[in-house]
TrEMBL record:
Short name of any one Pfam family annotated for the protein: DUF604
Organism name: Quillaja saponaria (Soap bark tree)
Matches recorded under InterPro entries: DUF604 (IPR006740)
UniProt-recorded name of the protein: Transferring glycosyl group transferase
Upper classification of the organism: Eukaryota, Viridiplantae, Streptophyta, Embryophyta, Tracheophyta
Keyword Isomerase appears in the UniProt entry: no
Length: 490
């Protein structure tokens, strides 16, 4: 065989640097882009394989966080029973209303324990803020871009839950919304919410008392003035859809109706708590307060539009009287009890911390628990209908119950209380001689356990002391738990 020259063999042998066309060095400048693309594809292939292998054998580390990732940290979660520190309030206010309405929050807000803010539509000046009011404020942002048909402020108020959530405050279990004229009874609010698992999605509140309002808005909507609560998991999901939802429901009137519609899109129904009071009524709230349901009093609203709760007192003075009783025995406030003076054939209804009614005839419990209609509907000022039964108020003053109002409350040790109620005589009832000599009624009671409402609640019983004999013009009554087989049948 003919031997080739060494130079020829070298030219025909494979060049190690030209063994693959993938890495062929470009002979033309125009081929540089093609080479770079090939190198990029190769790097991406290697990176993808490495990422897949690492993901298969390691725990997730959250490389790709979702939008609106939860601001809750592991260190924020505690296992204690729900208390006031777990609630974050969001109050809807405005520069036009806050100075006057802050009188209400001043009654219940405790700067040492209460967390939250009143959200305003602009920066207040010195004249807008009362120096004695401790409720902190924040200014709403990014709300004027939303479409609306009737109320732009309703959009802003609907976004308060978004604004509160994005603050990222620790240990929040419940976001509670209300108006700047909503009065909350915070210990009772805690009792109401503590019944529910805050790790699940809850939307809790009450609807309107006036059917015309529920028909106009929704029966299964929590009315915002009475306040409503949203659990953390629901709030976390709600804020993801809220802005888009506000655009979809631009034609609604109120902020609470917008929130209701958005919560409905998440499939969460309203959980009703009868202690939230929108008070969509006109006139006197006396009948409702004197026959409160067996539930903790959580909130009151629209008090500027109602007659004063106590005669011869302003509404703020009336609230202070209620608060005096509330601070002694929060859970018992407005809880109704019935008892009978069999010798006189009297029926007695007690709304603890507020009023006592003495009927000089036998009234059944099924009737006493029905509110006297001392009020009218919110919008049309008509006689109904309401979302509960009512009793008519008699036109004969001598057939009306004799009423007594809270005059004094006193704590007895750490577990009991005395409350005294003073007779109120209307001008047109002076000719009636019933219950002459009973000027005051003194009621003793043990403090009610806040857990009372978390089980199967039962209205407590009362009994007339000393066989109905008067002491210094006062009738003495004791409220206690009903015995197992006890009834109050006359």
């Amino acid at each position: 065989m003919e031997k080739r020259p060494i130079s020829t063999r070298l030219e025909l042998s494979p060049d190690p640097y030209k063994s693959s066309k993938f890495f062929t060095f470009p002979e033309k400048p125009s081929d540089i882009f093609v080479v770079l693309m090939r190198i990029g594809l190769f790097v991406c292939l290697i990176a993808s394989i490495s990422l897949a292998i690492y993901s298969a054998f390691s725990k997730p580390t959250g490389w790709f966080p979702y939008p609106y990732r939860s601001v809750r940290k592991i260190s924020d979660v505690d296992s204690r029973p729900t208390n006031i520190s777990h609630i974050l309030f969001g109050l809807a206010g405005s520069l036009n209303t806050w100075r006057d309405r802050s009188r209400y929050s001043q009654l219940w807000w405790d700067e040492n324990t209460t967390r939250g803010f009143v959200w305003l539509d602009g920066k207040p000046d010195v004249d807008t803020l009362r120096p004695e009011v401790s409720t902190p404020y924040r200014i709403s942002e990014d709300w004027t871009r939303f479409k609306y048909s009737s109320s732009q402020s309703a959009v802003r108020i609907a976004r308060i839950i978004y604004d509160n959530f994005k603050l990222g405050l620790p240990n929040v279990r419940w976001f509670v919304m209300g108006d700047d004229d909503t009065v909350f009874f915070t210990e009772n609010l805690v009792s109401a919410l503590a019944k529910y698992d805050h790790n699940k999605m809850y939307y809790i509140g009450g609807n309107s008392e006036s059917v015309e309002q529920d028909v106009m808005h929704a029966y299964d909507m929590a009315f915002g003035g009475g306040g409503f609560a949203v659990s953390y998991p629901l709030a976390e999901l709600l804020i993801k859809i809220l802005d888009g939802c506000l655009f979809r429901y631009y034609y609604f009137y109120g902020s609470d109706q917008r929130i209701w519609a958005c919560v409905s899109e998440l499939g969460v129904p309203l959980t009703r708590e009868s202690g939230f009071h929108q008070f969509d009524i006109r006139g006197s709230p006396y009948g409702l307060l004197a026959a409160h349901p067996v539930a903790p009093l959580v909130s009151l609203h629209h008090l500027d539009y109602l007659d004063s709760m106590f005669p011869n007192k302003t509404q703020i003075e009336s609230l202070k009287s209620l608060m005096d009783a509330y601070r002694v025995d929060p859970a018992r406030l407005l809880q109704q009890s019935f008892c009978y003076d069999r010798s006189r054939r009297w029926s007695i209804s007690i709304s603890w911390g507020f009023t006592i009614q003495i009927y000089t005839s036998i009234q059944m419990a099924k009737d006493l628990q029905v509110p006297l209609q001392t009020f009218r509907t919110w919008r049309s000022w008509s006689n109904g209908p309401f979302t509960f039964n009512t009793r008519p108020v008699t036109s004969n003053p001598c057939e009306a119950p004799v009423t007594y109002f809270l005059d004094h409350v006193e704590e007895v040790g750490k577990s009991g209380s005395f409350t005294s109620y003073k007779k109120f005589v209307a001008e047109d009832a002076n000719k009636c001689k019933t219950t002459v000599g009973i000027d005051n009624i003194v009621v003793s009671a043990m403090k009610m356990d806040p857990q009372f409402f978390s089980e199967a609640p039962r209205r407590q019983c009362c009994e007339i002391m000393d066989r109905g004999k008067l002491k210094n013009g006062s009738l003495r009554i004791r409220i206690r738990k009903c015995r197992v087989r006890e009834t109050i049948t006359m």
